[in-house]
Write a structure and sequence with these properties.
- This protein has helices spanning about 20-30, 35-45, 80-100, 135-140, 145-165, 215-235; strands spanning about 5-10, 15-20, 45-50, 55, 60-65, 70-75, 115-120, 130-135, 170-175, 180, 190-195, 205-210.
- It has about 240 residues and is α+β, with helices and mostly antiparallel strands.
- It has one domain (about 5-235).
- The strands form 2 sheets. A 6-stranded antiparallel sheet has the order 1-2-6-5-4-3. Strands 7-8-12-11-10-9 form a 6-stranded antiparallel sheet.
- Strand 4 and strand 5 (about 60-65) form a beta hairpin.
- It is globular.
- The protein starts with a strand and ends with a helix.
C-alpha cells in the first residue's frame, strides 16, 4: 500500500487500513487514562487493545496481513453499540493523525481522505464529524462523473437504511474547492469549509446537523466510497 492510510467500505463494514509502520507509531502514543475513562463512561464500554480487537468494548476488529504489510481496523455497521463504534474510530483516527504529523510524507504517501473527529453524544448535532481531503483527492474528485456520484449516494443509502428506513435518498455536489454530501434530516450535511486547511493544502469537511448515528455512518460510507473511486482513477 503506497498510501499510509486509506478508507474503504464494503457490505456492512467500514475499514481504516494503515501501513504497519504507521500502526507501530500509533501504538507508541500514550492515551491519557483520564481521557479514556471519560469516553468509556460516555459510550458505556471500557477501552481495550489486543492483537485482534481494539477500542471501546473491542468495537473494532484488528486484522494483520504480513504479505501486504498493512493493518486493518474494521467496524461493523451492524454493531448496535453505536457510540462505542464512533468513539473507537474517533480515538483511532486521532492517533493516526498524531502519528502522521511526525512524518515528512510525500503527496503520494498521504491519505486521500482522513477522518479528523467523530462525536458520539445525545442532542443536536451530537453525531458530528470532520474529515480532510488531500490535494490529490481534490484533483481526483473533479474527475468524478455521474456514475461515480451515484455509487457514493447508493453506498450512503445502503448503510443509512441499516439504522433508519427513512434514509432513502442522498445528495452530492462537487466543484473546485467544494465537496458536499447530504442525507435526509434537518439540513443534514457534510460539506467543505473555507477555513483551517489552507496552510497544508487540504480541504476541510465539517458536519451540519448530524443528529443520529445513521446519518454519521452513512457519511462515513460515502467518504470511503469516494476514497475508493479516487484510488481507481489513480491506477
Amino acid at each position: 500500500m503506497a498510501r499510509v492510510y486509506r478508507l474503504s467500505s464494503e457490505f456492512s463494514e467500514f475499514t481504516v487500513e494503515v501501513s504497519r509502520d504507521l500502526d507501530e507509531r500509533m501504538q507508541t502514543l500514550k492515551l491519557s487514562q483520564e481521557f479514556v475513562d471519560r469516553i468509556a463512561v460516555l459510550c458505556g464500554n471500557p477501552f481495550s487493545a489486543t492483537s485482534r480487537r481494539w477500542g471501546f468494548g473491542g468495537a473494532l476488529r484488528r486484522d494483520t496481513f504480513t504479505h501486504t504489510n498493512t493493518v486493518r481496523y474494521v467496524a461493523s455497521f451492524l454493531d448496535a453499540r453505536h457510540r462505542s463504534v464512533a468513539a473507537s474510530l474517533d480515538v483511532l483516527t486521532r492517533l493516526f493523525a498524531d502519528g502522521l504529523l511526525t512524518e515528512d510524507l510525500s503527496e503520494e504517501e498521504r491519505p486521500l481522505v482522513a477522518l479528523s473527529g467523530l462525536s458520539f453524544r445525545h442532542g443536536r448535532s451530537g453525531w458530528d464529524m470532520a474529515a480532510e481531503f488531500s490535494e490529490t483527492m481534490q484533483r481526483a474528485m473533479l474527475r468524478f462523473d455521474e456514475t461515480m456520484y451515484r455509487r457514493i449516494i447508493l453506498r450512503m443509502i445502503a448503510v443509512g437504511k441499516v439504522f433508519d428506513e427513512n434514509i432513502t435518498e442522498g445528495g452530492i455536489h462537487v466543484a473546485e474547492g467544494k465537496f458536499f454530501l447530504q442525507v435526509p434530516g434537518d439540513a443534514t450535511q457534510l460539506y467543505s469549509s473555507d477555513h483551517g486547511g489552507e496552510h497544508r493544502g487540504v480541504l476541510k469537511l465539517t458536519g451540519h446537523n448530524i443528529d443520529r448515528p445513521s446519518q454519521q455512518f452513512a457519511f462515513l460510507a460515502g467518504l470511503a466510497e469516494a476514497n475508493m473511486i479516487a484510488e481507481e482513477l489513480e491506477r
